[in-house]
Amino acid sequence: MTQISSHGIALNPVDPGFGELRDSIDIVDDATALRARMREDGYLFFRGLLDRKLVLKARREILLKYAIIGEIDPEKPLLDAIAANDTAIDRINLRAFAESVRSGIEYERIVLHPRLLGVHRHLLGSEVHAFDFRWPRFVRPGEACGFHYDGPYMMRGTDRIFSSWIPLGDVSRSEGALILLEGSHRQAALLKTYARKDADRDKIPWLGTDPIKLQARYGGRWLSTDFTAGDVLCFTMHTLHGALDNNSPEGRCRLSSDTRYQCADEPRDERWNGASPIAHGQDKVFCPGLGNWNNRDFQDEWKRVDARGRLVMPPPNDEKD
After folding, report:
1. 188 contact partners, CB below 8 Å, separation of at least 6
2. What is the per-residue pLDDT across 211-264, written as a single tens digit (0 to 9) for each?
3. Predicted TM-score (pTM) of this structure
4. Strand order in the sheet with 311-312
5. Which of 91, 117, 146, 258 is exposed most, by the fewest CB atoms within 10 A?
C-alpha cells in the first residue's frame, strides 16, 4: 500500500487518531440541517455534489495549460497528469499563466456551479458572492501544504465566509488529499490567538507542519477520505486543515481548487476581490510548491516575479516547526 504521510511524517488511516469525513449529501437541500452540522463539525463533505463529467472538463482545460509549459509528461495521457522531468515554469510569464489557469471557462463553471452556490446560500441565508480570486492548485509528487486556518488570510471584509475544496479529478489520500483536524473550529486556544491574526500584517507562517504534534496539542482526529471527481468539501474559516503528501507511485500531479464564498451584501476583503485583486502584493503570483519555506512571507504558495512576470525563487530554507 502506498504510504500516507504529511510533510514526511507517516500516518496510519486505520489508527484511532485518523478518521473518515462524514458525508452530508443526504441533507444537501436542508438549510437548517446544513447549518447545524457545520456548527457541529466545522465542515461539510458532499460525495458527488457536482457532475463528474463537468469536473473532468475543467481538469482537462487546466492540464492543457500545464502541458504547454512542460509540467505534464507528453508521452502519458493528459488527464493522468503524470509529472514531466523538465518544466519551463521559470522561463514563462508566470503572472499571465496563472491568470489564464484561474480564469478558464470550464473551471468557472465548477466554482460557480448552481449546486455549489446553493449550498453556500443555505449556509449564509442570503445571496452569495464567490471571491473574484480563485486558487486552482497543482501539486507535484512530493509536495504538500502546511496546516492553517483560512481566517487570517481572508477576513478583512467579513468573518462570514466558507471555503470549498474541490478535487479536479480523483484524489486519494496517498496522492495528497486535504486533511482537517476534528473539532479545531472550537479550539479556544486557537480562536483567542491565531484566529485573530492578519496574515499580511502579522507575517505568520504555517501554524505547523507536523500533524502528530498538532494533534497532541489540540486533540481531535485527523479526518480525510479518498476523493473522486464531483466531491466537494466545505469548511469554516476556523477549521484547521492542510494536505497530505502527494506520494503517487505513478508520479501523478494532484489538481484541486480552493474557492471562498460570502454574503453578497457584506464587505469584501480587497486582497481577493475586485477587477485586479491585490492578493499578497503585485510582485507575487500564486504558484504552490517548488520548495518548502514554512510559508514564511507566503513563499510556499506565492512566488515572487520580476517586471516581466518571470519566477524569482526564494533561497532554500529547510526549517521545520
Report:
1. none
2. 999 999 999 999 999 999 999 999 999 999 999 999 999 999 999 999 999 999
3. 0.96
4. 284-286, 302-305, 311-312
5. 91
